[in-house]
Amino acid sequence: xxxxxxxxxxxxxxxxxxxxxxxxxxxxxxxxxxxxxxxxxxxxxxxxxxxxxxxxxxxxxxxxxxxxxxxxxxxxxxxxxxxxxxxxxxxxxxxxxxxxxxxxxxxxxxxxxxxxxxxxxxxxxxxxxxxxxxxxxxxxxxxx
Length: 144
Hints:
This protein is α/β, with parallel strands linked by helices. It has three helices and five strands. It has helices at 2-24, 75-92, 108-117; strands at 33-40, 45-51, 56-61, 96-102, 121-127. The protein has a five-stranded mixed sheet, covered by helices on one side. It is globular and about 65 Å long. This is Small ribosomal subunit protein uS11.
């Protein structure tokens, strides 16, 4: 008896996911010029493709692509995430982007290259990594 209810609930949950996926996969037409924001931290890389106003057309990250732990901050993970993100945006109609790169992570160049190779033309690359004015506070003086 318990097995029958488990199967029924799993079947219901599966149908709910399919309905959500169908609702998410709606076709959105965007203008052909936009921006690509690449945030490369030491732990992950996040790629967001937006229109000129800043509304996100598609996004992806190394964590979303299934990479875990130290594999998230590799150039390959950045490339896979950028390909997935730009494929979705290309289908929506995005053709040219101005790339804004932020952070010190490993996958910066490979993400830009992957966006360009997927059919979206990169017109400009701008580094918007924040610079500290006076650095962070030094540690307390050591007492022995």
